[in-house]
Amino acid sequence: MWARRNMGTQASKQCCFMPSATQYCALALLLSVGLSSSAFFLPDSGLVWLLLVDFLLVLNGLYLKNSLTSLLKLAVVQLAVTLPLYYVLHGQAQLFEGVIVVLRVFLAMLPGWWLSSTQRPERLGEVLCWGLPSKWAFVISASIGLMPFMLQETKEIYAIQCLRGANISAKALRNPKNWLELINCVLLPVLIQLLKLSKQMATAAKLRHFGKAAKATHWPSTGEDK
Known about the structure:
The chain is mainly α. The chain has 2 domains: 22-119, no CATH class; 132-213, no CATH class. Helix content is 73%, strand content 0%. Helix 3 runs parallel beside helix 5 (95-118) and helix 7 crosses helix 8 (179-207). The longest helix is centred in the middle third of the chain and has 30 residues, at 134-163. It is globular and about 60 Å long.
């Protein structure tokens, strides 16, 4: 009887297969790539279904307490820039096409936001090592990991420059003459900060003898694979 009970327990464990964190990350990466590609290749009639699927990803990301504000602001800026260009180049009849273009770009970025919000960079690096050299995988995963930090840095630099009196407020940027000031006051400092941080990461990787081992290792996330 005990043997039968033990065999039944083992069979139930085999039936209840749970993917590891790395396998789940691989599935999430494939899903994100597929959805992002579909945003450009699907016909206009298929965007409704893609929008529904991406909406589920947004709900999952918001449930995990990730912010979508930056991506929405970027979409609004794209819309504000694209529609006037379409109006000047193609006239009022093609404005709807401009909206579709912005929608496609937004739908292509949503899976990437969800992937970076739900998966750890070290897990992405481990999955990317399956098909890429370890150095390339490290660069890609490190870049994804830097995105939240750089967004926060951009917000802080923008707030500081506004306090200094720079004409880079939302109202001031309606005038194209102030765009150059935005580049000088915000984008260039962010670029310098990014280069500085990249150099620090390269130095840290070199001190840890990155690339000298035959097989790359990845820092384990506590309790994920248990």
